[in-house]
Design goal:
The protein has two helices and two strands; from the N terminus they run H-E-E-H. With 102 residues, the protein is mostly helical. A hairpin with a 2-residue loop joins strand 1 and strand 2.
């Protein structure tokens, strides 16, 4: 496989493994940050219910942003065109002397 095919496979894999879960986590983060995410627990016969704190939603949004940015970074670094020789194309330098400053 050539480098472009490998980069494409890596980008698709990171979209499926990081991007899509990041989008789902973003939805739950928005709902939780808005303060409307209910929870119900039961432990040793004692049940409790309430709303999750908004700070948990903001944490979910931060993690979701990182998960969404990973496929973009992988795609950028693996699929960008690189110079063949690694030298930046520039115009040739002339050997003429510089004109005097006025």
């Amino acid at each position: 496989m050539d480098k472009k095919t490998t980069g494409l496979i890596a980008t698709i894999a990171t979209v499926l493994l990081c991007g899509l879960p990041g989008l789902c986590l973003c939805i739950f983060g928005v709902v939780t940050a808005a303060g409307v995410m209910p929870y119900t627990t039961e432990f040793n016969g004692v049940s409790d219910s309430g709303m999750m704190p908004s700070s948990a939603g903001f944490g979910m949004l931060c993690v979701a942003l990182i998960l969404i940015l990973i496929p973009a970074a992988v795609g950028f670094f693996t699929l960008r065109k690189k110079d063949k020789d690694g030298i930046i194309d520039a115009e040739p330098v002339s050997d003429e002397p510089l004109p005097p400053v006025s």
